[in-house]
Amino acid sequence: PNLWMPFSHRSAYCATSVASLTNILTPTLFAGTAEWIARCQNWEGGIGGVPGMEAHGGYTFCGVAALVILKQEHLLNLRSLLHWVTGRQMRFEGGFQGRCNKLVDGCYSFWQAGLLPLLHRALHARGDPALSMAHWMFDQLALQEYILLCCQCPAGGLLDKPGKSRDFYHTCYCLSGLAIAQHFGSGDLHNEVVLGVPENCLQATHPVYNIAPEKVARAVMHFLQYPVPSLDPAS
Amino acid sequence: DEIGLIPCPEARYNRSPIVLVENKLGVESWCVKFLLPYVHNKLLLYRQRKQWLNKDELIDITCTLLLLNPDFTTAWNVRKELILSGTLNPLKDLHLGKLALTKFPKSPETWIHRRWVLQQLIQENSLPSLATKGNLGAAPVERIHRLVQEEMNVCSEAAGRYPSNYNAWSHRIWVLQHLAKLTVKVLLDELSSTKYWVSMHVSDHSGFHYRQFLLNSLIRRTVTDNNILVQNQMVNEQNPSLQKEEENAGTEAACAEEQSVDLPRRLDEEMELCSELIDNYPGHETLWCHSDESLNNSHHSPATSHMAQAMVVDGLNESSSKQGYTQETKRLKRAPVQDSLGPEMEYRFVDKVLSTCRDVDQARFATAYRKWLVTFLGQ
């Protein structure tokens, strides 16, 4: 009965991110992790902190991203997850809430909206014919409106919602969410949807790691040069 | 029994900033910027082995620190060490945590430490000698029951102090899983004791979600209990000479428990509660979601899964397995499953809401629910 279980998806996401970027990801390292995360998906379709708990935006993103890294996203019911996350975009504000019946929050622009690229990719891999080739399955313009109009602090920085004060966490995730909303796909399928003037366009971000895609590529290439470290102590 | 900060930017009078009124502790805000760094620094110096603090000082300092900032993990960890060395009574930390939660109802570190303390306490129960102060003579089962009740109270209060308090509700679930072992009795008790609470907090999605958890656990529990029942019956039928008194008593008790659950009625009650609240409080998305899921559960009631389970349990003896199966079906027939009635009632309810409501959100939720019903029943 692990006391820290409700927070384990965050650790799983951090660990899988680091391990995959640095090429130390082995099957034994994450044995059981994928199954544990999948058990936390509940009737709402999202993922809770522990099996039985309410679905939560932060845990859902961390859980799904970790599963994508582990190539085990098929363990989830993707349709109910899609149903849940799309229900979290608020029709009046345009931003996302973290859980049912709660208020909108700028940071969920990434945690929630960021799920749509992951889902898109997973469903595409299954050969789903209904997928759009130009847009994510959420209202990209409405989210951009919320972020640009409601989440900016006049003195600089971004925030949760009007009335709250700015902080680095909200600045980071509002911007990340904005980048997700502005860029669909990559390479040949790249489609930009920018609200307002072209100068509003941000650099694209990688939907799994939330760093620039080129950085992901460079990191992976760099660490592939080195062998996976062994667990034997150096002689 | 409660702590709070008294907004008081300046020390006007030359007197103590601590105020105690009717068992409630207040601290004037001006002193925090002096007090907190002082105690914080003292503890850090101790941790860095630069300045010694004796056990009483440690207890006092960590207590002060945690009442000002309960997310200071190091302070909780110092107290863990004190508990493990036998200097500090773990029950004190439950009380300290409870107090901290009156002001910081979400504090993750407080909830985590609480689970650690509870684990320590139940581990003690497995030891033959129990000499914990204040609990002399109490039987382990009784002790655990009291602990569980207290935790339910603490969670309930914390949930009331912050809307949709995720950490409080997940702690509540943890306690039921690891201390109360999800017995039918505790699940039913919790269903009845939270009924009033959720009616008073109709937008608290976590509260309703908790009820879903209780109902789901009951469903799973009933299926498991019945499986054991069927298996035991068959074992007994094959080996009448080996029948043990306790096993019989156990199966009968489980049988009695299962009969008293009456799941279909519980699920119907849940639907009734939803309808009532939806009528009284128009426009709350949580209530509609809860309605969806309760209907879902009553459709996939344990009756259908029982049948499947009973058929899977084959047994060695053909005749005895048939006998077990027949007894099972007899019990199922006694508890009618109103599958067909449920959705019809829901249609009538939704149409009534749509024709009488004036709240825009309520109409939207009702329409969505209707569409969901159509899709759901179409399957």
Structural commentary:
The complex is a heterodimer of chains A (235) and B (379). Helices cover 41% and strands 2% of the residues of chain A. Chain A has 235 residues and is mostly helical. Chain A has one domain: Glycosyltransferase. In chain A, strands 1-2 form a two-stranded antiparallel ribbon. In chain A, β1 and β2 form a beta hairpin. In chain A, α1 packs parallel to α3, α4 packs antiparallel against α6 and α7 packs antiparallel against α8. Chain A is globular. The mean pLDDT of chain A is 93. In chain B, strands 1-3-2 form a three-stranded mixed β-sheet. Chain B is flat and about 70 Å long. Chain B contains 16 helices and three strands. Among the domains of chain B are: 103 residues, no CATH class; 79 residues, no CATH class; 71 residues, no CATH class. Chain B is mainly α and 379 residues long. In chain B, α4 packs antiparallel against α5. About 16% of the residues of chain B have low confidence. At the A-B interface, loops of A face α5, α7, α9 and α12 of B.
Descriptive key words:
heterodimer, A: 235 residues, two-stranded antiparallel sheet, 9 helices, 2 strands, 41% helix, B: 379 residues, mainly alpha, 16 helices, 72% helix, flat
